[in-house]
Each structure stands twice: as C-alpha cells, then as structure tokens.
C-alpha cells in the first residue's frame, strides 16, 4: 500500500464530488441559452405593442402554460418566466465557476488549504442551510399555487406553480452543488498536494 | 369563555399607508384597538416590508404572515370570483354593493371561496368608482379603442379587447415613462386622490370619466384562520365592529376628497376632464354583457354570485325609483 | 439603551466578520439570516416569507430583466470587437488629452443613466467596455475603477429612476416633480466627476497616462475617417436603445432587449459571430446575472430577519436621541442615512427609514412650502442613497465591478478607488442643502 488512508479517502471524496459538480455546470450551461429566448420574448412584446395587437393566436383547447390564447401579456410574462429559470439555475453555475463576489482582502493571502477550509465551513454553515430552509418553507406556497390553478390575472400565462416550483427546486439543486464542493474541498484539505495541483473552479 | 387571542397581529398592507387606500388599514387598526379596549392591536407593515404586495394572499394562507390588507381584485388569478368584488364593469354603486354584501349574502360567497385557503376575510373598505383613465388620444366612439394601447386590469380589459384594444401589463414604476413617451396611449390606475401622486396628469391630455370598468371596489382584511380561531367570540365581534366602522369611514370620507383632488390637478397641470359620450358607454356595456356571459359560462361560482348581486341591486334601484323626487 | 438591540448589532458584526473571510458575500448574507432566525427564536412560518420575497421581489419583478439584457449587450459588443475598436479610436482622439478616456466613460455613464436606472447593468456594461482598455493604457487601477463605479450609479438618480418612483409613492409627492427635481443634481454630480478627472489629469499625469505611440499608430486610417467608421456601430446601438424609449416604441426594460439584438447584428455584420462567441456570451451573461441577482436574493432574507429582530427600531432610536434644530436634524438624518448606506440597500432604507422620518420632516421649517420641503428632502435622500451604492463594505456597484474583473482587480483597490467619488457625492449633497434652488428650480417649486 503506497497511499496513506487519508489520501485514499481524499480520492474517494473527490470522485464522489464530480457528478454533483458536473451536473450543476451542465444544467447551468443549458439554462444559459435562455437569455436568447428572453430577448426574443421581449422583442415579440415590443412588436405586438407597436402593431397595437392584443392577441397573436387563439385556440379552443386549454394548453399547458398558455391557456387558450397567446396575448401580448403572455409574451410579457414569458419574459420573466424565462428570466427566472435563467437566474435560478445560473446561481449554481456561478458557484462552480467562482463567479460569486468575494471580499478578497484577506482571502487572496490565504493558502489554498485555508481557502478550502473557509469555503467548506461556509457552505456547511451558511449556504446549504439557507438553500434548504428557504426551499422547504416555500414549498407549501408552490403546492397552493398548483392546487388553486393560480394563473395570470391579465390574460397572460397559466400554471404559476411552474415558476414558483422552480424556485424551491433550484435552491435544492444549489444545496446539492454546494455539497459537491464540500466533498471536493474536504479532499483538498486531506491531501494538500491535490489543492496545489488542481484548479477547483471551471471557467 | 374562550381565551383571548393574540394581542398583536402583523398586517401586511398592499398599499402604502399614507395613501387613502392603505390608510384604511391604519384606520381599522385604531378602531380595533378602541373596540377591544387595547387587547388587540395591529402592526401594519408597508408594502414589500414583509412580503411583496402580490404575495400577501399566499403568505397569509400559509401562515407566513398573520394578516393582510388588500384590494380583493389582486387575488383573482387564484380565485376568479374575486373579479366581481375587485372591479366589476357596470356594476352597482358602492351603497348598493354594500347592501348586498351584508343583507344579500355577498360576504358568504367570498368566505366560502376563501375557506379552502384557510383565510378569514373581512371586507372593510370600499373605494368609490374609479376613473375612466388618462388618455393622450380623444375617445369619441368605441372605434377609437381599436389598436389603442392601454394599461388596465381585470374584466374591463376584456371588454376593451372586444374593440381591438391592446390591454397590457406595465409595472407600476414604468407606467409614467411609458405614458410620457407614448409606449402606451393611456392608463387607468385608481381614484383621483391616488392618481394625483403618480403625476400622470402632467403627461397626458385627457382624464376620462366615468370609470365604467369598476363601479365599486372592495378592500379587505384577510386573516389566517389559525390566528382568527384563537380569538373568542366576543373578540371576533370586535373585529366585525371595527370593520363596519372602517367601511362607514371609507364610504363617507372618499367622494368629496376625489373632487378636491381633481380640482388640484386641473389647476396644476390643466388636464382636461372629459366624459365618454353616451353612445360609447352603451357600446361598452353591450360588450360587457358578452364578456360577463362568457365568464358565467366558464365559472359557476361567479355566475351564482353575479346573479344574486344583480337581483339585489335591482331591488334597491326600484326602491329609489319609487321614491325619486322630480 | 442598546442592550435590547444586542441581536441586530451582533448580526451586523457577524456580517462584517463573515465577508472579510473572503467567503462569497451573498452566501454570508443568506446564511446569517437563517442562523439569526434560530438564535432569535423567530417562528419558522415567518421565515416562509423569504421565498415569497424572492419570488415577488426578484423573479416576478421584471424590471430586473434589464440586467441580463444589458450584460448580454455589453459582452456581445466586447466579443464583436466593436467596443474595443471604438475605444481604440477614442484613445487616438483623446490620446493627447489627459484623462480623456476616463471622461468619455463618465459621459457614457450619464447617457446610460438617462436611458435606464439599473445600476448593476450600467456598471457591468461600462466596466466591460472600458476597464480592459483603461488598464491596457496603464491607467492607475484606482482611477479606472472609480469612474466606472461612480458613473454607473448615476442611473438611480437621473430620471427615469425606480428609486424616485418608489419614494414618490412613499412620500405622497408627484413622481413627475421628483423626476424634474433630480435632473439638475444628477447632471451636476456627473459634472463634478468630470471636473475631478480634469484636475487629477493635470495634477497627477502618471495616474492617467496618454496612450503609447505604438499602440495608437497601428491603425493608419486618418483619424476622422476612423472615428466615423468606428462610431457607426455604437451610435447605431445608442440610437436603438435611447431612440426606442424616446420614440415610445419601448419601455426602458424593453429597450435593453433592442440593444441586445443590435449588438448581435453588429457582431454578424463585423463577421465575428459564430457558435463559440454566442455560447461564451450566453454562459458569461448567466454567470454575471446570477452573481448580481443572488446578492439581492440573499439581502432580502438578511433584511427581513434584521428588521424582525428590531433593527429598524435601533435605527429610529438613533435618530430621536439627537434633539437638534431643523438644519442640525437634517444633517444628523443625512449622516445617519449615509452610515446606514454602508450596510443596507436603498430599497430597505426607503421603505423602513423614510416612513419613520416623514413625520419629523413635515414639522421642520426651512422657510419653504411643505410640498417644496418634501421634494427637496426626497432628492437629498436620493443623492445619499445613490452614494450607498459606492460606500464599502456594502457598495453594490463595487461588487458588480469586482464581479466582472475576474480576479484581475482586488476589492481593496476598488474600495480605494471610490473614496474621491464618495467625497464628490458629499460635496454635491452639501451644495443641494445650501442651495435648494438646484433641486427646486426645475419643478417650479421656488
Ligand atoms: Na435613470
Ligand atoms: Na454601501
């Protein structure tokens, strides 16, 4: 046996962290494309307004999310449905790409190991409890929105529970991502060479 | 006897308390304090202070906030019946509507709808008829609504849609600029007393009346039932007393204030006060009959309440006609 | 007197300690909210409001959509090469003027302020356009960062402004009057920035060096022609954004999308558009937007708990403890808002502190009409709150700027960069206090 136990544990932790981090990055990248849809939705609103149009299409059956018609207010509300999804899932992506703002007065002088300890502790004590508690406590409102069939009061989109649910789901998703980072940081703390060797955030 | 309920309850208002609509919450707070001999007091929170205005209903329902002070029409996306209480086009006057609420079963219909959300509702404030809105274009017939871009909510929007208007959602903070630059051709907001503050008169030409889309609108205190049920019967009666007193205040206080506000606006910005002509109003009413028929077909609860309200209002109308002096 | 306020005070202390560990600011805010909810024994259902505040205040509030749209526009411009070519040409133009580049950033900031009011969007866009070029030209880092952050905040003061709309409804003052009243003070502040840059350029030439001859001379096109060529794109974009607002085609939020489309078109025309470019712009837009919006999300949780623990009464007691005359009290209030601005967001101060102060202000006699007093006071508050975007440790403009530098610039550098501008803000505020006419002339309230 060449490796000491703590090195093998570090390797295992690192391995376990990879899918959690990987899926966070992948979903974040996929939802990033929504910005193009947001732009399209806003431009559609502008065009419909310029033409003095209220309805683009009307049909007979109730359709998921769109109800019975696509009005200028459907386009307006689509803007923030899409923007909401974009922002909520990009938060996790920003976590993995180290895009969240730090006051690095002291941080940039810390050793890699200390930095990992700071992040590790922060994720466990601050970020993960925040995400899980807010997601859990908001869930009754998601259910209420679903059960009441909450929809636009302006002839816009229906199925409000979708975007409300996305709030809780994305926060749990963020907690999972943070847990992945905790595992990775633990690996780095146990195996300082790993901390020196690897970059821990993607671009 | 039952034990007394909580001494202090948090009330999240959807309107700033220094405007007339939100001042109702403060007035009611004073009345409940008096009626309960200081054993119940409200802490009224400004909009957004606890939760954003549009989230008040859900927050009260789930118990995140004890109570809320609202315009009932805000929750029509959840309970479509509320369009009737929030903004009913060509509906009865505030007086006739109030009569239906307490002697025609109006409060029972809403309480039944609110029960499944674990909310006790106390309609305690009625605002007078709103205005027909601010316009930068003259409206001489319903043809002028074709292609008109107008900010309005509720069932009135669906009436305008029948004439080809594009009715839209503009966030409160952007209405001023949208109107000023002509992104929209007009906007309906509230009663003159409240509109005055928004400064819309500075940037539009015409202020149209009557507010056909909303003849009376109801505001209420909503309380989470887990909180409400902790109060004794005597205390519940105290709530009702304070509520009626607030209602009387809103009905008596409002009308003269509107005319004063209107005079101030005319003096300041020279906005032209106009009335839609009778022909236009008749056409709007005919379109409203179509909209209400559609709404009743889709929504049995609305149908039941609407028919009850109209039957009740007819009795009142007949009584006043019988008594009318030349 | 402060024993009963031990929890809110402790909360602020933990916040400061927390952010100086270097752990992300947003997560410190959110995490402390939850920790203190347990410490302060706040009932769980009350904490259910955090989700409602996020949904109603951040997601459903589609004024925020302008943030990703302007970020996208800025990134696309950068990738398309349009922005850098313009700045290179501006560099040729201003290459012989000390601080010329910084002054054009300030001017651009004023123009953006008149078209939108989203501080995050303005700072990010100015930063992405100008920072790389300024640093390349060997500007002192502090000089480059300061002008970007400060000019980016002008949008919250110069109309249109969400802040003034909100204040109007809280104070029951016409929004139109506030818009008019804010215009001259806003332009005056922009003018003060430019004045400062001119003076600094003269006194400290090496802080804002002229461009190297070699850098400038790579382009052999005659300057007027180059200027014409490189201005076409940006002017087209500016016309698209501002013009669509002015012509009544779009609201400010919608104009941001028109700008984004314009930037895409410029990239296509400039043959810089391909899958990789588009992908990178989308990815970076998502990251920057999330960084900005997640701070707002976490701050809303923090302030809810802070208030619930009595933080708002703490503030109130601090005011009433003074006992001064009209001007003394006004200065005390301004000082208090300034200090609060170090830690709180303008929206919190507007909603929490402003209503508490209104009765006090109504009673003060400054020798003007009640209406004029309110408008004047509102604008003084607005200038003060604009400053709060710039004051460390919680200056959101500073965080946004830090967010896009990708670790090139230290936050301490940004903190230092902003000091002169905070002093200029205070100068502007003092001028408006001494000469109310600056505020009251345009709305005709003199
Ligand atoms: Na602005
Ligand atoms: Na600050």
TrEMBL record, chain A:
Location of this chain's protein in the cell: Cell inner membrane
Transmembrane segments: 33-52, 78-96, 117-139, 161-183
InterPro entries xrefs: DctQ, TRAP_DctQ
Membrane topology: Multi-pass membrane protein
Record-annotated Tripartite ATP-independent periplasmic transporters DctQ component domain positions: 66-186
Keywords from the named record: Cell inner membrane, Cell membrane, Membrane, Transmembrane, Transmembrane helix, Transport
Gene Ontology MF term list: transmembrane transporter activity
CC annotations in GO: plasma membrane
Superkingdom of origin: Bacteria
Job of this protein: Part of the tripartite ATP-independent periplasmic (TRAP) transport system.
Record's subunit section: The complex comprises the extracytoplasmic solute receptor protein and the two transmembrane proteins.
UniProt similarity note: Belongs to the TRAP transporter small permease family.
Protein name in the entry: TRAP transporter small permease protein
Organism: Marinospirillum alkaliphilum DSM 21637
Automatic annotation (TrEMBL), chain C:
Keyword Cell membrane belongs to the record: yes
Pfam family, one: DctM
Mode of membrane association: Multi-pass membrane protein
Function, in words: Part of the tripartite ATP-independent periplasmic (TRAP) transport system.
Entry protein name: TRAP transporter large permease protein
Gene Ontology terms: cellular component: plasma membrane
InterPro entries reported in the protein's UniProt record: DctM, TRAP_DctM
Oligomer status and interactors: The complex comprises the extracytoplasmic solute receptor protein and the two transmembrane proteins.
Transmembrane segments: 12-39, 59-78, 99-126, 146-166, 178-199, 235-268, 289-306, 326-344, 351-368, 374-401, 422-442
Organism in which the protein naturally occurs: Marinospirillum alkaliphilum DSM 21637
Keywords: Cell inner membrane, Cell membrane, Membrane, Transmembrane, Transmembrane helix, Transport
Homology family: Belongs to the TRAP transporter large permease family.
Keyword RNA-binding: no
Subcellular location: Cell inner membrane
Domain TRAP C4-dicarboxylate transport system permease DctM subunit positions: 12-438
Gene Ontology molecular function: transmembrane transporter activity
Main location, first listed in the record: membrane
PANTHER family in UniProt: SIALIC ACID TRAP TRANSPORTER PERMEASE PROTEIN SIAT-RELATED (PTHR33362), SLL1103 PROTEIN (PTHR33362:SF7)
């Amino acid at each position: 046996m060449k490796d000491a136990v703590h090195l093998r544990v570090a390797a295992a932790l690192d391995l376990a962290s990879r899918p959690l981090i990987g899926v966070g990055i992948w979903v974040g990248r996929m939802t990033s494309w929504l910005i193009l849809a947001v732009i399209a939705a806003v431009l559609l609103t502008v065009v419909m307004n310029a033409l003095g149009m209220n309805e683009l299409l009307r049909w007979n059956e109730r359709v998921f999310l769109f109800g019975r018609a696509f009005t200028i207010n459907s386009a307006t509300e689509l803007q923030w449905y899409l923007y909401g999804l974009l922002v909520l899932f990009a938060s996790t992506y920003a976590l993995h790409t180290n895009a969240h703002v730090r006051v690095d007065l002291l941080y940039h002088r810390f050793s890699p190991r200390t930095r990992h300890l700071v992040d590790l502790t922060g994720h466990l004590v601050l970020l993960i409890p925040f995400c899980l508690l807010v997601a859990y406590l908001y869930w009754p409102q998601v259910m209420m929105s679903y059960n009441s069939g909450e929809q636009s009061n302006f002839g816009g989109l229906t199925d409000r529970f979708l975007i409300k649910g996305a709030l809780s789901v994305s926060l749990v998703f963020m907690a999972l991502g943070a847990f992945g980072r905790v595992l990775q940081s633990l690996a780095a703390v146990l195996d300082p060479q790993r901390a020196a060797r690897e970059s821990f955030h993607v671009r | 006897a039952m034990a007394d309920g909580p001494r202090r309850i948090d009330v999240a208002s959807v309107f700033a308390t220094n405007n007339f609509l939100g001042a109702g919450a403060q007035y009611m707070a004073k009345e409940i304090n008096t009626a309960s001999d200081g054993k119940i007091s409200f802490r009224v929170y400004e909009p957004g202070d606890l939760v954003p205005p549009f989230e008040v209903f859900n927050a009260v329902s789930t118990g995140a906030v004890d109570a809320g002070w609202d315009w009932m029409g805000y929750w029509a996306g959840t309970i479509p019946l509320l369009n009737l209480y929030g903004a009913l086009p060509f509906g009865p006057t505030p007086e006739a509507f109030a009569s239906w609420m307490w002697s025609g079963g109006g409060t029972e219909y809403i309480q039944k709808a609110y029960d499944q959300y674990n909310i006790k509702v106390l309609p305690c404030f009625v605002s007078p008829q709103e205005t027909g809105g601010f316009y930068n274009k003259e409206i001489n017939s319903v043809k002028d609504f074709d292609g008109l871009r107008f900010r309005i909510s509720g069932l009135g929007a669906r009436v305008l849609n029948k004439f080809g208007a594009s009715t839209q959602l503009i966030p409160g903070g952007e209405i001023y600029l949208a109107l000023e630059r002509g992104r929209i051709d007009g906007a309906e907001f509230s009663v003159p007393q409240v509109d005055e503050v928004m400064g819309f008169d500075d940037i539009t030409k015409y202020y149209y009346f009557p507010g056909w889309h909303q003849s009376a609108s109801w505001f209420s205190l909503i309380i989470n039932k887990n909180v409400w049920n902790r109060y004794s019967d005597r205390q519940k009666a105290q709530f009702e007393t304070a509520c009626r007193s607030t209602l009387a205040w809103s009905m008596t206080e409002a009308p003269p204030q509107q005319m004063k506000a209107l005079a101030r606006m005319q003096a300041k910005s020279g906005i032209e006060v106009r009335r839609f002509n009778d022909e236009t109003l008749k056409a709007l009413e005919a379109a409203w009959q179509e909209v209400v028929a559609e709404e009743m077909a889709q929504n049995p609860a609305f149908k039941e309440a609407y028919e009850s309200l109209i039957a009740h209002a007819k009795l009142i109308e007949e009584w006043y006609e019988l008594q009318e002096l030349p | 007197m402060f024993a009963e306020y031990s929890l809110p005070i402790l909360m602020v202390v933990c916040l400061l300690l927390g952010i100086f560990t270097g752990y992300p600011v947003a997560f410190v805010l959110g995490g402390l909210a939850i920790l203190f909810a347990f410490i302060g024994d706040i009932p769980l259902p009350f904490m259910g409001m955090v989700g409602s505040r996020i949904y109603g205040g951040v997601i459903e509030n589609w004024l925020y959509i302008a943030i990703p749209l302007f970020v996208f526009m800025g990134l696309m411009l950068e990738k398309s090469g349009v922005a850098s070519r313009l700045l290179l040409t501006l560099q040729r133009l201003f290459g012989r003027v000390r601080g010329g580049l910084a002054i054009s950033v300030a001017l651009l900031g004023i123009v953006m302020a008149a078209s939108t009011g989203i501080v995050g969007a303005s700072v990010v866009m100015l930063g992405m356009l100008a920072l790389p070029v300024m640093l390349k030209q060997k500007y002192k880092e502090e000089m480059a960062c300061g002008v970007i952050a400060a000019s980016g905040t002008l949008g919250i003061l110069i109309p249109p402004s969400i802040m003034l709309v909100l204040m109007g409804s809280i104070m029951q003052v016409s929004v139109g009057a506030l818009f008019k009243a804010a215009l001259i003070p806003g332009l005056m502040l922009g003018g003060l920035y430019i004045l400062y840059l001119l003076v600094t350029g003269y006194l400290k030439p090496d802080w804002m060096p002229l461009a190297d001859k070699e850098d400038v001379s790579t382009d052999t096109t005659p300057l007027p022609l180059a200027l014409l060529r490189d201005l076409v794109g940006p002017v087209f974009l500016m016309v698209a954004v501002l013009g669509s607002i002015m012509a009544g085609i779009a609201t400010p939020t919608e104009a941001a999308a028109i700008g984004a489309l314009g930037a895409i078109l410029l990239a296509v025309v400039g043959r810089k558009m391909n899958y990789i470019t588009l992908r990178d712009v989308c990815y970076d837009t998502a990251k920057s937007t999330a960084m900005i919006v997640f701070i707002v999300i976490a701050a809303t949780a923090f302030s809810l708990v802070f208030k619930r623990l009595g933080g708002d009464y703490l503030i109130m007691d601090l005011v009433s403890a003074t006992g001064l005359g009209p001007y003394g009290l006004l200065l005390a209030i301004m000082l208090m808002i300034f200090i609060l601005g170090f830690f709180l967001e303008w929206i919190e101060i507007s909603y929490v502190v402003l209503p508490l102060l209104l009765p006090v202000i109504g009673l003060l006699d400054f020798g003007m009409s009640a209406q004029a007093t309110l408008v004047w006071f509102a604008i003084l508050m607005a200038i003060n709150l604009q400053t709060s975007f710039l004051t460390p440790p919680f200056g959101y403009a500073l965080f946004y700027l830090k967010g896009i530098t990708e670790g090139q610039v230290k936050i301490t550098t940004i903190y230092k960069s902003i000091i002169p501008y905070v002093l200029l803000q205070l100068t502007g505020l003092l001028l408006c206090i001494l000469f109310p006419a600056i505020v009251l002339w345009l709305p005709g309230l003199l």
